[in-house]
Design goal:
With 427 residues, the chain is of the alpha+beta class. The chain is 16% helix and 27% strand. The two termini are 38 Å apart.
């Protein structure tokens, strides 16, 4: 029985852009559940904001061209996709008013597609202000779009949005702060001349959240670094990441600000070893069971037996393994912050309950709703965005004594060999 699941992520590509002025929108109250459902989202952009000067910033959008729809219905008779990027910038400092917006349309020629596809869009962001940037990326031919919200923070010249990270050899811009020991990167600070970089290292001591029925919120990270050192700065200084943890690179020895690189493991976000497969079982198993699994001399056999005991036969066990660890992988992909995505509040809910049926987002929170049938109960969870010096992807579950979680029913369902399906439960 194969106990290890591995899913490769999509490679990255690039092409040049042109623009026009057509406008497209998504309603503010749109259900965004597709963004966390791999089977429903057709495009998966990545974003980065860089502050050029006191009056302007640049939004970089990376697209995977393989995800776009191409056809030959154009005057040139060549395979071409149409990509649209719409943005709207809200100034939160003066009361959430729209201060800038625009739309760019890019024809993507299949024969020109190289390794990466990056658009750069100037936005009018003023010094000392904080903004929420709404971005909608649309595959025009497929008529599918993805909506995202990005915090633009111009209150400090020390934070992550004042840096650009590139690959040491190719000099291609790097969007993902998740790294591994094989990477060699360069960090650039073009705003002014500096001669020193300060690196603060934090061990990965993150804890696993309690079940949603517990009223005590999950703890925050200890902000005292385990070690600090400095290195000479140049635009060719190589950064490497030899051990797991958080590496925050800044230009000041006194400010906990900078660009953070996070190293969770060589295969992250995948789970490839039996030991990695045991740890996320904490949501289904008792502490004693987890200790027994981790101390087993043959951890692979221990994982297989855990699922066999729940499923009662090999085929069901294989299906449960596939579903559970696919969810672990996607929790890592979607929700990684200063800790692995599966260890976050959103990751916990995602793994046990599955992708939510409804997701509504605004500047400061996300609301997830499970249940679509009138004859079935509905469960909702609200996650509040937390200010964090290492990431913009830190959300905590809002815990309330009146919140109906059905956690025990969900765990029991898994332990009885069935994924939890709220739509199959009657009021």
């Amino acid at each position: 029985m194969r106990g290890i699941i591995y899913i490769g992520l999509i490679g990255l590509f690039t092409v040049l852009f042109q623009s026009c002025n057509t406008v497209t929108k998504i309603r503010q109250d749109s259900n965004l559940a597709y963004i966390y459902n791999p089977g429903r989202a057709t495009i998966h952009p990545r974003y980065k904001v860089y502050h050029d000067n006191d009056n302007q910033s640049t939004l970089f959008v990376k697209i995977y061209p393989v995800e776009l729809l191409y056809n030959m219905a154009n005057p040139e008779g060549i395979y071409r996709a149409e990509l649209g990027i719409y943005y709207r910038l809200y100034d939160l400092t003066v009361g959430r008013i729209v201060v800038d917006s625009g739309f760019f349309k890019y024809p993507v020629m299949m024969h020109n597609v190289k390794r990466e596809f990056i658009a750069s869009i100037p936005i009018k962001a003023e010094k000392a202000h904080t903004y929420n940037l709404e971005v909608i990326v649309r595959d025009i031919l497929r008529n599918k779009a993805v909506q995202s919200f990005i915090t633009v923070d111009k209150t400090s010249e020390y934070n992550r949005q004042n840096f650009i990270v590139v690959d040491h050899k190719s000099r291609v811009q790097v969007f993902n702060p998740i790294v591994d020991s094989s990477l060699a990167l360069c960090i650039l600070y073009p705003k002014k001349e500096i001669d020193t970089l300060y690196i603060r290292y934090f061990e990965n001591k993150s804890k696993i959240p309690d079940p949603p029925s517990f009223l005590i919120p999950s703890g925050s990270m200890d902000l005292k670094p385990d070690s600090v050192w400095s290195i000479p700065y140049s635009d060719t200084t190589i950064l490497k990441f030899p051990v797991h943890g958080i590496y925050q690179v800044g230009i000041s020895p006194d400010r906990l600000e900078g660009y953070s690189f996070i190293y969770f493991g060589e295969y992250f976000p995948s789970v490839k070893t039996p030991e990695e497969m045991i740890k996320p079982l904490v949501y289904l198993a008792s502490q004693n069971e987890i200790k027994r699994l981790l101390s087993d001399p043959v951890p692979k056999l221990a994982v297989d037996n855990f699922w066999l005991e729940s499923a009662s036969n090999i085929e069901k066990a294989r299906e449960l393994i596939r579903i559970y660890y696919n969810r672990v992988l996607y929790a890592n992909y979607f929700f990684a912050s200063y800790k692995e995505g599966w260890k976050t509040d959103r990751g916990m809910i995602y793994i046990v309950y599955g992708p939510p049926d409804n997701v509504f987002k605004n500047d400061e929170e996300e609301k997830w709703i499970f249940g679509t049938k009138k004859s079935s109960p509905r469960i909702s969870f609200v996650f509040t965005k937390i200010s964090n010096p290492f990431t913009q992807n830190d959300f905590k579950l809002r815990r309330n004594a009146e919140t109906k979680t059905m956690w025990d029913q969900a765990v029991t369902s898994w332990r009885n060999g069935k994924t939890f399906e709220i739509n199959q439960i009657k009021e």
